[in-house]
Write a structure and sequence with these properties.
globular, alpha/beta
């Protein structure tokens, strides 16, 4: 079974193509990104999350992700992610500098 990954916004097709054969990919298609409550709902069912700096990935969101293994920002930074909470839960935090 492929890992499940949720992407909080449509990112460039090049990035999505890198993932689509390797994971069960779900991409938020809304004009505006999902609110925190929706992210919590999605995190409960996934192994990986690709977020943007505008997405609040705090302790509450991370706690909801019982199977969550990695959170990656499609951005240079990761100020929106509670890195301490992620570390406590064994969740890897990454970003995408240069993309």
């Amino acid at each position: 079974m492929k890992p499940k990954v949720f992407v909080t916004r449509r990112i460039p097709d090049k990035g999505l193509k890198m993932l689509e054969d390797k994971v069960d990919l779900k991409v938020w298609e809304g004009v505006v990104g999902p609110n925190k409550e929706r992210i919590i709902e999605e995190v409960a069912e996934i192994d990986g999350l690709i977020s943007l700096l505008s997405d609040p990935i705090d302790r509450e969101v991370l706690k909801a992700g019982e199977n969550l293994k990695v959170v990656s920002n499609y951005a240079v930074g990761y100020d929106n992610i509670d890195v301490d909470a992620a570390t406590e839960q064994g969740i890897y935090v990454t970003n995408t500098p240069g993309h």
